[in-house]
Amino acid sequence: MSDAPATPSAASDLIRPVAPEAARSAWALRLRANSEYVAIPLIAIAVAAALFALFLLAIGKSPADFVSYVWRGGFGTAFSFQNTLQRSSPLILTALAVAIPARIGLIMIGGEGALVLGGFAAAALAIPMIGVLPPLLALTVMAAFAMLVGGFWVGLAGFLRTARGVNETISSLLLTYIGIAIMNFFVEGALRDLSNPNKPSTKPLGDAYMVGKIPGTDVHWGFAAGVLLCVLLYLLLERTTFGFAARVTGGNYRAALAQGLPVGKLIVACSGLAGACAGLAGFFEVAAIQGRANASLAAGYGFTGILVSFLARHNPLVIPPVAILFGGIVASGGLIQRRMGLPDATVQVLEGLIFVVILTSETLYGRFSIFKPPAGRDRT
Amino acid sequence: MNDAVLTVLIAMLGGAIRVSTPFMFVALGECLTEKSGRVNLGLEGTLVLGAMVAYAASYHTGSPWLGVLAAGVAGAALGAMHGAICGLPKVNDVAVGIAMMLFGVGIAFFFGKPYIQPTAPRLDSISLGFWSDSPSLKSALEVNPLFFVGVVIAVALAWALRNTRWGLVVRTVGDSAPAARAMGLSVNLVRFLTTSVGGFLAGAGGAFLSLSYPGSWNQGLSSGQGLMAVALVIFARWSPVRCVYAALLFGAAGALGPSLQSIGITQGYYFFNAAPYILTLVIMIATSSATHSARDMPGELTMAK
């Protein structure tokens, strides 16, 4: 852009259709620029894997064994892969709970709390509905209620952010602890199913009121719902004015305010959507896996979801493959524990390591000339 | 009835002193780190790792004080990692803190597995209740020496930040990185050092958890104390001495559940256990403001921008 007035030739440049080879080179430039966002995370994962291999060698275990058990336990057979897909469903949904607020510039980590409360709310609401409403209707109401409760819980952190300037990272994690305490309070008290002496739980839903499997597979519908939500939320964030306004706010808060965007409402809406996704994850954990709400809802999916979202660079379309990768690692945890004699926290160490390396790799963006447009051919 | 109230109050006094110690150490560490303009949210992980390392070291060497030292060193290592990574351009310190939290807890659980069963020598307490006949007051005044160490560190830190050259360097770096650079200071080096020292303190705070109260190592030892301590620094407006008062307040809130249990009120156990989280949230709501950043906040903090 120059300050000189537009000459007739420049104006005709704008009107003339783009020549085919120019379009191809524009594509090449875009590809070159975007491949940075693929290459650097892959390098980071490779570095994290190498560090983890060194860690295993240092404690006298074989990294090759580890890889082969992750493959066998998470991906190798039809059974294990379907198990992986099943476990990736809450990861997809809790990763969305991080990715949506990230677009508006907030680091929300309350997915675990929204999952637990959403799941509990669904199980509690089911108690008077079982046997009264038809299963499909009851499940729909339960899912909607779980999303509402989850959305409220994370939305609260967003509201506190805009209304009182409370740091959203700390408040969302505090709300997670409070949410787990609320569930424990009811599950061990008023809503405890006394016929089950083992683990304090709510009343079971019963087989008739469980979410079924996707036909032809052993994977429940939560996985399909997660993938569908990823696509829908991608469209919302990338192709609508709402998404544009959210991204502007995330990019420059003051500019958004100056533009007159409803920044506060956008923040609450994004947080609410995030919580609704995590709440839905809780609904599927209750209605498709556990059949009741109890302490095992807080299995750490919400925390792995944070990592999934960061690894996918908060892009909803990249979340499902990353979630499947981590679903597989989580699913093979038991096998690794039994066969290699490693503690169950091994997966946690690996996840923490990948997380740290991925964040460190942020510093590499824009440093490699190979990803930059060739000098001199810059649009002037 | 009166007796019951008295019992609860005495138990809360003792509990406040006991429960506040780890809060105090983490808050002091975080206070120093934030004074230099960086947030380390990973201190929850540091606290858990410190607890595990202290227990293991005390078990193997037979000396709990060596355990405290080892916990500090482990915490300093995690802090140094955070400090070094955040020194790179474009890296977000809050996100790295979350990652370090997961990493620290993971490492602690991984290596801590063999130490869940055995008993390690614990830190002895000092009996300050010798003048009293009341057994409950006596037990409430069994104070761990680490509590006094924490108070001394708080006073020393407050003095050093205000009166020494080092304190001035830390405050300058925290308030304005460009000004610090113009003075020829290395911003990254100063923040690396404050994050490492902050990690040392948080690790030592973890040692209190496993070696004094509750006094054993297990995976449920800390649930959010490290995080609450970070929030507490905001409440204490970045003053080490106010951190001690705030820690005592949080300790009292944390002691509420067990105190009520001691007189037989067990209803709502989970709600009283949630009291510190709720208190933290309420305090954050009350002391934050949407329109201007908190008083006395170091200008370089990501929260301030």
Characterize the structure shown.
The complex is a heterodimer of chains A (380) and B (305). Chain A is mostly helical and 380 residues long. Chain A has helices at 8-15, 20-58, 63-76, 78-103, 111-129, 135-164, 168-187, 221-239, 241-251, 253-258, 263-290, 301-311, 319-331, 333-340, 346-361. The longest helix of chain A is centred in the N-terminal third of the chain and has 39 residues, at 20-58. Chain A is globular, with a radius of gyration of 24 Å. The N and C termini of chain A lie close together (6 Å). The model of chain A is unreliable at 1-12 (pLDDT under 50). Chain B has helices spanning 2-35, 43-61, 64-86, 93-112, 135-140, 145-163, 165-175, 177-182, 187-211, 225-235, 240-262, 269-273, 275-287, and strands at 126-127, 142-143. Chain B has 305 residues and is an all-alpha fold. Helices cover 70% and strands 1% of the residues of chain B. Chain B is globular and about 60 Å long. A two-stranded antiparallel ribbon of chain B has the order 1-2. Chain B contains 13 helices and two strands; from the N terminus they run H-H-H-H-E-H-E-H-H-H-H-H-H-H-H.
